[in-house]
Please model this.
Amino acid sequence: MRKMKINFFLLGFCISFLSACEQPVTNMLSEEEFKNPSAEYKPRTWFHAMSGNMSKAGLTKDLEAIEKVGIGGILLFNVTQGIPNGPVKYNSPEHQEMLKHAAIECERLGLSFGVHNCDGWSSSGGPWIRPEQSMKMVVWSETIINGGDVNIQLPQPTTRKDYYEDIAVLAYPSLETEIADFENKPKITASNAKFDIIIANDNRLDNTTLIEKKGDENPWIQFEYKKAHEVRSVFLVFKDRNGEAVLQTSDDGKNFKTIRELYKVRTGKEEWAINDSFEPVKSKYFRLQLNQTMTFKEARLLCTQYVHNILGRTSIARTEDNEMTPIGEPAQGMVIDKNKIIDLSSKVDSKGKLKANLAIGSWTIIRFGYTSTDAYNHPASDEGRGLECDKFSREAFKIHYDAFAKKVIENTKTVAPNAMQYIEIDSYEMGGQNWTQNYDRIFKEQKGYNIIEFLPLFAGRFVESAETSEKVLWDLRDVNCKLMDENYFGYFAELCRQDGVKSYIEPYGFGPLNDLDVGGRADINMGEFWMNREMTMVQSAVSASHIYGKSVTSAESFTSTPEINWKGNPAMAKISGDKAWAFGINEFMFHRFAHQANTHVKPGMTMNRWGFHFDRTQTWWENAGADWFQYMARGQYLLRQGVPVSDLLVFVGDASPNSVYLRKDFEPEIPAGTNFDCVNTDVLLNRIELKNNALVLPEGTEYKMLVLRNCKTLKLETVKRIAEISQTGIPIVGEKPLQLAGFNTSEEEKAEFKLLVDEIWKQEKIYTNFNWTSIFEKENLRSDLSIAGRSDINFMHRFTADADIYFLYNPDSLARQLECNFRVENKIPELWNPMTGETLKSGQFKNSGSTTKVWINLEAEESVFVVFRESANGVLSVSKSDKSNEGVYFLNADNQLIMETPAENTPIEIKGSWEVEFLKENDYEAKHAFTQLTDWKDNADENIKYYSGTAIYRKTFNWDNEVLASQNKYILKLGDVKIVAEVILNGKNISIDWMPPFNVDITNALQKGENHLEIKITNQWSNKLIGDERFPASYTGYELEGNFPKGIMMDWYSNNEPMPHGKRTTFCTASFYKANDELMPSGLLGPVQIIMEKVKSI
Model:
């Protein structure tokens, strides 16, 4: 279907229908707006200023290039990772002046402008945050003593950044296993003598010690007990993302066998932990066998059975509630009797000295306090790096917001009132938090009981019972996620609105947060997708936007690993973007554009090794880039009309933290032809109206069925809402809840819960299995879109007052005819082509009752919007099958059938020699005669072999084969193109082609007799960069470093001067190639042919 055109004397129609962003009926859908979309629909880009390398000249040139190719705005990040430091220091007057200049230029160019809220991409911190304003965690120290008169100094727990505050000191009769650990301390050795045993076993997280791998032998840590000892728990904290450990035992200290694989959790940006509990294992020798060199903060084995995954259960690690493994059934003697816990806080002075009298016997004294989590914003410069603000405290976040974001807004809003539009919180990668000032008071206000008496839970102990412990920990996570939602994300959005800007938020991350709750706070939700990866990080943003009625869902788009590098191009990326559209994204925010502070070098600055390289220095920036960006704007125009259509509403449950469900999370999977959104408690209770036998949002979105996930434990108000829904006859799919949420619940509430649940799950339209075929058949729920033989093709459906808009794409590398069955009754399918801006009525359809079957021809990786608006009454159409070779059918303006058929004659090849001109701006100025079309990389001339950029192919040919007929189409087939072709025939600019099959309609430019053909071919940077690796650099003093570079950028670069002269003509801040790397295919490879197609009325 790509680039299809029908002669307009036969078609000549104009389509329009009603559409809206927030309400089904507000605006007319416009063909002209689709063909030439307004700025609001254009893609945006992240704009990375690297390591303080900024210049006004570079900003102006970058922004002019961005505007020229059809990108609508920028979101500026300052990132320091690897690149040597430039002269502009973060948040300095010079930096603020640069930001002001960027905003003014955006205003001049009609671009939108915004910044990330801190230095780096995660999350909200800076040097203005003091330790007492930083993220906080509960810490503790343990002491076992004999009763009687007690006068001891209690060890101060882990203290980070010299900040520590006491919470309480509690005592309880020691568990037998605690005494066993105290009396039978192991001798600890390691494979590496430099490993500091004291640091690794001091019950503190202040310091680190390294254990190195020597040669091929993996390192180990060994625990030797005086006698056989029972171990039930392992606690490790380390700094290594890829670190792994297994637990081994031995009878002789020589021959070890593995008894348990140990599972790690992430507790911070660069911190991981293993907190595993299991059935007792008795041995004299234990060994932690490691897989690599590792940096440890703590490594302990314990006889006491810990609450399973206590770090996840107390919000230090993120474990979503639906993935929480059972808390464990404590063995006899492993539970603390709450009634025997004594609060000794009043007996302890400010320095931790305890004076008290306790009954005779062994007592465990735990000193609880809190300290900083030591989380820093990342990856940031020395001037912008600091502690992350307390995510539970509005006061702390306000300090952070005022220190940078507020200054930027005040600095730019008066000079660029239209441009300055948004602030963002990007990736949340800062880990957990589980305390703040006055947390015990906040907890009691929300839950009605005192958390202090349950503090031993933080130390992994069971209190009262497993059931009680689980209920309290459920409450704890509920409070924590609510505090982060309200006082971090919610307050951020509130401050942005007060200052007249919008908030962008990526509503997910490994911390105490509920994705959909956070998404409800944002003005614009942002997901993310990576090149050539599954779409696992867009659903939170998409569902949050849908259920909260937000018309724009953005995404950090096309993020890439170093393997993509400068090979990346629009054709390579398009399929990932199409898939994101089908998942609900309708604004691409490119990852990433690197600010080119030096305007003389190419390809220039990078975001270290990260891509995709959406840079003005790209070879394809102004041809394929501009064309692709236009494609995006057209699609995003349609994808923001009306409201989304999804049949199922999946409730994620009341428990925290929670995220969303993917199709693959269901067994069996939800059928491909049925879309769904996820919903949180807030929307289920407060935004949904029950009418027309559906769950209806204020914007008009309707869901036909409620699906319950992770609902074994629910709040009473939620059960009441489900009962209300069930009474309307709306089908509900899900297992019966088992218990009322929370610790502080009355017997009356429990009885009401049971009564309601029993009543709900007696009803006819309650399904407890997920047999979708059976359920859909009983409820007469048809697929919204089914594609014959294809369950792998995703789609997006939006609905306006009088139109249905579907988006779908061909994911294959071959052309396909898709037999699509749409849940649309008696309408004509219109094909809206975002590549060309053309709109056509298909004649290949069949209406059947409440569905319409459409046969759609798509080229490899091609996409289309199918719009249903006009009644099909009395319209003649054609049923097609894959076996049909008759041609392609369309309708003209009068709804008469038109058939387009391929020519019966063979293609005519344009043979002979081509003149090929290589251009000075690409470091080689020459004209060559190519007697045949060959690959540049195979050319004997190294100037051509290593050429990167655009070259112009010219050819004069005669067209005398037949009379040019108005009912015919003439197609120029370029054959194989690497990678972009811009076709000019007889002085007319025809098209820019960057996707196979590179077929160009030249009907309106081809003339009888002599024709002058010009084809501009552009390849990637790769070959030039590989070629330049043969030569030494003409400069010195440049070196990439780690996340915290200390080097200074070269003077000539910072002064915006040309690179010193030498054989190497390129400069790139990250090296992706070596001189012997394989070159990329380049050039016009052909064969170049012309074919004729006939168009006739039926």
Q: What stands out?
A: The chain has five domains: 16-20+800-902, 35-129+376-452+465-642, 184-303, 645-778, 908-1029+1071-1097.
